[in-house]
Amino acid sequence: MGEEEEAGNEDMAKSESGGKITYFVVASCVMAAMGGVLFGYDIGVSGGVMSMGPFLKRFFPKVYNLEEEDRRRRGNNSNHYCLFNSQLLTSFTSSLYVSGFVATLLASSVTRSWGRKPSIFLGGVAFLAGATLGGSAQNVAMLIIARLLLGVGVGFANQSVPLYLSEMAPAKFRGAISNGFQLCIGIGFLSANVINYETQQIKHSYGWRISLATAAIPASILTLGSLFLPETPNSIIQTTGDVHKAELILRRVRGTQNVQDELNDLVEASSDSATDTNGFVILLQRKYRPELVMALAIPFFQQVTGINVVGFYAPVLFRTVGFGESGSLMSTLVTGIVGTTSTLLSMLVVDRIGRKTLFLIGGLQMLVSQVAIGVIIMVAEGHHNGVIGEGYGYTVVVLVCVYVAGFGWSWGPLGWLVPSEIFPLEIRSAAQSVTVAVSFVFTFAVAQSVPPMLCKLRAGIFFFYGGWLVVMTVAVQLFLPETKNVPIEKVAGLWEKHWFWRRMQRKRDIKETTIIGSS
């Protein structure tokens, strides 16, 4: 089965038009991927400011007072796992994903009808407004509204940017270029950690304002830069039907005049997509069942890896296991560096060793580290009256780094790459919206549930997410076809020959009916 799939991929790759990495496509994709920087920054900055005393004292005084009391009682069986179990505090973090969920569904219509560029622009504008309001917030209501605006930005950007990157990239480099989105998320997360570490050392109480307002810088770059981005050839044909303009852009981004085969594929895909206007209705058809399942499963699995426990609450977690405010932010900074580095490594190898191999390696790596963290915390607590010593704390930091590295070269980038490349044009915008919406729903659920779960389960929270890692690693190996080196408009043929999904007896008018040998 695996050999047949690999052989089919090679046949597909041979049929693609010549294409190479050009300055034009790199510049366009770097600018678009700035949306990833903003997403990563928003994830990282919230956890950092929540560990800053002045921020807590101003907006969440009950949490601040509990933390101060815990410091005085440290070593006397105080339950420091429950310090941050505040509904208002978690609302600050998770409100972003409520508006993001709504925005990504709206973004589908914008992206399909007017193109990828308008969605990227609207995302940048919303980011800019949210960053400005957050940095100047005077009360919790202003903080929440700022997060809601940031959520609108995330919704539009996360729906459109992965599509933009996958459509602009040549097939043999699509994995590396599309993984640039996750790399930018990592860069944004790392930048937030660096800024948080520096601003918490400011003697006055406004350091958190700098952290929140700094997001306006990449937001401005994305907003202005989106005005100069070229539209993707796929989108030009889909929205305007201007084949000549699409051909000119295609020649420019591919760096070759030999684009006729790829252009024909785009025109054919656009013709198929023009038969219906409601992508969500089309997505529910039986023949698109594999894509629908993956649109739901991949973002769900990405969230239950437990990564946002680290992203949202890493500074809080490190304070819980014994580090002070400065030490917890430094530990989070280290994990941010590890995550960004591992994503860069993934970019270099994903188009060589394939998606499923990285899913397997990363899944096993995260599973081992999650279980090890849970065991260490459980043992340490049992012998030290609920207080984890510094030695155990450093061990937890190392294991978190191992975990983040596993996520950084597997579910982090591939959770965005794979959905953006497995959907045919007629459902691509709608399916991507479903993917992002599901991601927001479960990110919201994780953000809301982690503080009470940490309070009740303590070390058990790591075993909970470890169990999900077993499920997702097995599921991906069984049900996801390998898309390495397959042109984006020909990926649909993989489902028809997959050992499980071919049982759906799907019928599509695709020229490559013999892509993969019959088994």
UniProtKB/TrEMBL annotation:
Keyword Transit peptide: no
Gene3D superfamilies in the cross-refs: MFS general substrate transporter like domains
Protein family: Belongs to the major facilitator superfamily. Sugar transporter (TC 2.A.1.1) family.
Membrane topology: Multi-pass membrane protein
Name of the protein this chain belongs to: Major facilitator superfamily (MFS) profile domain-containing protein
Membrane-spanning intervals of the chain: 21-41, 88-107, 119-138, 144-165, 177-195, 207-229, 292-316, 328-350, 357-380, 392-418, 430-450, 462-480
Cellular localization per UniProt: Membrane
Keyword entries, A-Z: Membrane, Sugar transport, Symport, Transmembrane, Transmembrane helix, Transport
Domain (Major facilitator superfamily (MFS) profile): residue spans on this chain: 28-484
Annotated GO MF terms: monosaccharide transmembrane transporter activity; symporter activity
Cellular component GO terms, alphabetical: membrane
A Pfam family matched in the record: Sugar_tr
InterPro entries: MFS_dom (IPR020846), MFS_STP/MST-like_plant (IPR044778), MFS_sugar_transport-like (IPR005828), MFS_trans_sf (IPR036259), STP/PLT_plant (IPR045262), Sugar/inositol_transpt (IPR003663), Sugar_transporter_CS (IPR005829)
